[in-house]
């Protein structure tokens, strides 16, 4: 399985791992699964940190290494997927994560009901 973490799921894993359900936790810990964290999440975290809206670990790169997750860069193929998405949700970070998941055939791990309504494979926490 190839999994892409929604930003809040990544943050929960760092600060409140008990919020992640057993089935999802097993999928994330399974070494046969690839787990990705998007550069979009890093952008969202740093932007919200700069605005004083979020407290998060200062070294996201080290957090990725510790968890053995892979960074997913933002590519033009991801942007080409954006016009194919229905206009249901205005959050640009969520829309980009959805586009990445669709373009790269990833399962988006999320708790956000607005995302679950999109035509994208999801796994609920």
Give your account of this protein's structure:
The protein is α/β, with parallel strands linked by helices. It has a single domain, classed as 3-Layer(aba) Sandwich (Rossmann fold). Helix content is 46%, strand content 15%. It has 7 helices and 5 strands; from the N terminus they run βααβααβααβαβ. The protein has helices at residues 7-15, 22-29, 39-50, 60-67, 76-79, 92-103, 113-116, and strands at residues 2-5, 34-38, 70-72, 107-110, 122-124. It has a 5-stranded parallel sheet. Strand 4 (107-110), helix 7 (113-116) and strand 5 (122-124) form a beta-alpha-beta unit.
Helix content: 40-55%
Sheet-strand content, in percent, reads 15-25%
Q: For the record, what is the CATH homologous superfamily label? A: 5'-nuclease
CATH architecture group name: 3-Layer(aba) Sandwich
The number of helical segments is 7
Shape: globular
| Alpha-beta classification | alpha/beta
Terminal-residue CA separation:
16 Å
Sequence of strands across the biggest β-sheet: 3-2-1-4-5
In N-to-C order, the SSE pattern is EHHEHHEHHEHE
* Rg over CA atoms: 14 Å
Mean of residue pLDDT values: 94
Instruction: State the CATH topology.
Output: Rossmann fold
Name a few traits of the molecule.
125 residues; single chain; 5 strands; Rossmann fold; five-stranded parallel beta sheet; alpha/beta; globular
């Amino acid at each position: 399985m190839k999994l892409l973490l929604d930003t809040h799921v990544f943050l929960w894993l760092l600060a409140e791992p008990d919020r992640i359900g057993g089935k999802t936790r097993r999928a994330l810990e399974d070494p046969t699964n690839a787990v990705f964290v998007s550069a979009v999440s890093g952008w969202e975290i740093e932007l919200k940190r700069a605005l004083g809206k979020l407290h998060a670990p200062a070294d996201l790169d080290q957090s990725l290494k510790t968890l053995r997750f892979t960074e997913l860069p933002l590519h033009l193929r991801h942007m080409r997927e954006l016009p194919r998405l229905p206009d249901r949700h205005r959050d640009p970070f969520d829309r980009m994560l959805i586009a990445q998941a669709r373009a790269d055939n990833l399962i988006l791990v999320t708790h956000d009901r607005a995302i679950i309504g999109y035509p994208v494979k999801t796994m609920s926490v």
